[in-house]
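Dear H.,

Thanks for agreeing to be a second pair of eyes. The structure we're designing against is below in token form, covering all 322 positions.
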């Protein structure tokens, strides 16, 4: 019976920008600009890391995964939004909605785990410098990176499997701009208690676990930095963590606002704007944060544009430079 009710909904209608009818064309260019800046910025970071031998380190290896994730995360949502802006009805098929939900949840959880791994790398570099090459060997880094992607896909598989068991009974208007678990639960006509428990549990474990690990790592990093006697030494040690910390604050700050705010009285437009900050603006800012605050990335970029004569060289991430 539940499966029969579920198949009655062949598509969903997004209501995220229903309050501004006939003006969606004016939103197309800003969203397109966000997407292009996100893809080109992260692609630039990824390419620099692959080409420049000076970026042959664990930190940049993980950064290349973060850039890939940001491209994937924005590509899950923005292209469909752009297509809908050019149509009179903003719709998505049921199967496309489930696929969007799966990959959105997967990339979101993977990024949380990857930020924790990057904090682990900074801990090893600052607190265990004599053992850093062994602790963060190419094999260890590859295993950690692979584990973050598995972490995300397992979390997403659980959510998507539970959502597909729900019945919608003809209710197909989603008060959002893309398919995500909370707005889908709002329009389901079957019991969603198991889904809600799963979301809270996953939020605490899959999101809160990495965050606690980051806090734990940086407490040791701060303790080690404070033991350094010279002010320049302290600044140099902690400056390697600044970009990562900014991205952590952006990711978890926007995530908390997006998933843990009270939805009472919120319009679809408000929910859309909050989600834009989490799924679109943060991936756009990440490459800017690393390129503007990192001398090594700036140096690699100068080589690419030809302001330095030192040639680039392809490298294999299987061996880090000394």
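And this is the sequence the design step returned. I haven't edited it by hand at all.
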């Amino acid at each position: 019976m539940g499966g029969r009710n579920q198949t009655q909904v062949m598509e969903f209608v997004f209501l995220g920008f229903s309050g501004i009818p006939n003006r969606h064309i004016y939103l197309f260019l800003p969203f397109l600009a966000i997407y292009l800046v996100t893809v080109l910025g992260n692609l630039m970071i990824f390419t620099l890391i692959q080409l420049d031998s000076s970026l042959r380190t664990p930190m940049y290896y993980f950064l290349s995964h973060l850039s890939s994730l940001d491209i994937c995360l924005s590509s899950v949502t923005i292209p469909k939004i752009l297509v809908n802006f050019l149509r009179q009805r903003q719709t998505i098929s049921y199967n496309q909605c489930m696929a969007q939900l799966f990959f959105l949840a997967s990339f979101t959880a993977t990024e949380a785990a990857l930020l924790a791994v990057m904090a682990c790398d900074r801990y090893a570099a600052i607190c265990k410098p004599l053992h850093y090459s062994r602790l963060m060997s190419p094999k260890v880094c590859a295993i950690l990176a692979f584990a973050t992607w598995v972490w995300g896909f397992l979390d997403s598989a659980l959510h998507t499997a539970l959502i597909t068991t729900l019945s919608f009974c003809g209710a197909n208007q989603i008060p959002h701009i893309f398919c995500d678990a909370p707005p889908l639960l709002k329009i389901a006509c079957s019991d969603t208690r198991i889904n809600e428990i799963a979301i809270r549990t996953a939020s605490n474990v899959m999101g809160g676990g990495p965050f606690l690990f980051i806090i734990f790592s940086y407490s040791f990093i701060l303790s080690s930095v404070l033991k350094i006697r010279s002010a320049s030494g302290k600044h140099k040690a902690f400056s390697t963590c600044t970009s990562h910390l900014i991205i952590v604050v952006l990711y978890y700050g926007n995530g908390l606002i997006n998933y843990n705010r009270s939805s009472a009285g919120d319009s679809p437009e408000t929910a859309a704007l909050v989600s834009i900050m989490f799924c679109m603006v943060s991936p756009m800012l990440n490459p800017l944060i690393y390129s503007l605050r990192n001398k090594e990335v700036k140096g690699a970029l100068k080589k690419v544009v030809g302001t330095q004569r030192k040639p680039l060289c392809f490298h294999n991430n299987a061996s880090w430079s000394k």
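Two observations from my side: Residues 2-305 form a domain with the Rhopdopsin 7-helix transmembrane proteins fold (CATH 1.20.1070.10). DSSP finds eleven helices and three strands in the chain.

Warmly,
E.
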